[in-house]
Write a structure and sequence with these properties.
Mean pLDDT: 91
Oligomer: single chain
Strand content: 35-45%
CATH architecture of the largest domain: Sandwich
Number of helices: 2
CATH topology of the largest domain: Tick-borne Encephalitis virus Glycoprotein, domain 1
CATH superfamily of the largest domain: Flagellar hook protein FlgE
Structural class: mainly beta
Number of domains: 3
Helix content: 10-25%
Largest sheet: 9 strands, antiparallel
CATH class of the largest domain: Mainly Beta
């Protein structure tokens, strides 16, 4: 009978542990990325009984053999922050806290005061870092956005689509910047003009004015005027470019020799900029792709240049491959890094460390680390969070089962106690 007591106690202990697991699952049903735990039981080594030539065995109770997380996927919930991330498929985010790397399915990330991408506890998201050119490298480290700036790019080409009025009158005198004789700030003797902003090697903006002067039938000269760095308020003519048109108004030759500009000290000087007005017929083009000379008023249909100033980070986006792109105040987009994911052959054997974090164990094996959508890893959804995978209905069913088991085992103890009391009464009587 004493064996029955011990057996029933083991059953009550197992049911109590089962209820603890169920309670933990229910308590975390609203925890982002939480994985419910599953409990397994096993019978305890049986006691052998000899009866004649036969041997019988009586079980000695139950024991909890394993409690492990179930890594089935939870449903996704849309969020507003692009740094809220969820994994579709296998894989775990890698976060670093001190010298320890943890793994998690919870993708609630934000920026800390140092610009690191961190989870709510300050552990830093790990990923493949990008170099200054925005190319992903093979180095895994802390993903940080604070140090990222978009480097300035000096202007090297300007493309302009213009129409020069073929009916315009050729100026009687040569183009000059001294129209009134008081200084280099009064251009005269030109037909049309247009301004374009270009950038020096440090991202400084400079305005260049194009003065178009008709020099003959179907020929024009473009004068490029910039501010005089030596004399503020004055201007200098940096150079000229000849444009030749055919009799049908198409461009014959644009003479695309670069113009050298001087933008002052501290930057690249001179800075060569090529002005492209289209591919002329002399160069094998139609002469009609960009600039023309038709009998209509001067117009600029398109003008652009390839330079830009430096810029600071304005916003970020994360692709389904985990590539983090920064959008900068200068209008440029640059790759900052790529989220690294890890997966384990025996992920159910990972050690639970709290706060939705897991760590490698001796039985889980080493992680397979890679990028999203590679090496069996899933894709990443930005502005989404994975909810817990707790099935509340199933937890209630399991709770009722655990309660019944507990009550049944307690009934065994009560019955055994009554039998013992009867035995004691018989002996004492």
């Amino acid at each position: 009978m004493l064996t029955a007591l011990y057996t029933a106690v083991s059953g009550m202990d197992a049911s109590s542990t089962d209820l603890s697991v169920i309670g933990d699952n229910i308590a975390n049903m609203n925890t982002v990325g939480f994985k419910e735990s599953d409990i397994n039981f096993g019978d305890v080594l049986s006691q052998s009984l000899s009866s004649g030539g036969a041997t019988s065995q009586v079980g000695l109770g139950v024991d909890v053999t394993n409690v492990s997380p179930v890594f089935s996927e939870g449903s996704l919930e849309s969020e507003s922050s692009p740094l809220d991330l969820a994994i579709n498929g296998d894989g775990l985010f890698m976060v670093n806290e001190g010298a320890t790397t943890y793994y998690t399915r919870a993708g609630q990330f934000s920026l800390d005061h140092n610009g690191n991408i961190v989870n709510p506890d300050g552990a830093i998201l790990q990923g493949y870092l990008a170099n200054a050119a925005g190319q992903i490298t093979g180095t895994i480290g802390n993903l940080n956005l604070a140090a990222n700036q978009s480097q300035a790019n000096p202007t090297t080409t300007v493309s302009a689509s213009v129409n020069l009025d073929s009916t315009a009158t050729q100026p009687a005198a040569a183009f000059t910047l001294n129209g009134n004789g008081t200084g280099n700030n009064d251009p005269a003797n030109y037909n049309s003009s247009n301004s374009v902003t270009v950038y020096d090697s440090q991202g400084g903006a400079h305005q260049i004015t194009q003065y178009f002067v008709k020099t003959g039938n179907n020929t024009w000269t473009v004068n490029y005027v910039e501010a005089d760095p030596a004399n503020p308020g004055d201007f200098v003519n940096a150079g000229q470019q000849n444009l030749v048109f055919n009799t049908n108004g198409s461009l014959n030759n644009g003479n695309n020799a670069p113009i050298n500009f001087t933008f002052g000290g501290g930057v690249t000087t001179p800075q060569a900029i090529t002005f492209n007005y289209g591919t002329g017929t002399a160069g094998g083009g139609t002469g009609l792709d960009m600039s023309t000379q038709f009998g209509s008023t001067f117009s600029v249909t398109n003008i652009n240049q390839n330079g830009f100033s430096s810029g600071s980070l304005q916003s970020v986006s994360v692709s389904d491959a985990g590539v983090i792109n920064g959008v900068y105040t200068n209008g440029q987009t640059q790759t900052i890094g790529q989220v690294a994911l890890g997966r384990f052959m025996a992920e159910n054997d990972l050690t639970k460390d709290g706060q939705d974090l897991y760590s490698e164990s001796t039985t889980s094996g080493a992680p397979i680390v890679g990028t999203a959508n590679s090496s069996g890893l899933g894709t990443i959804s930005s502005s989404s969070l994975e909810l817990s995978n707790v099935d509340l209905d199933q937890q209630f069913v399991d709770m009722i089962s655990a309660q019944r088991s507990y009550e049944a085992n307690s009934k065994v103890i009560t019955t055994t106690d009554q039998m013992l009391q009867a035995l004691v009464s018989m002996i004492s009587g």
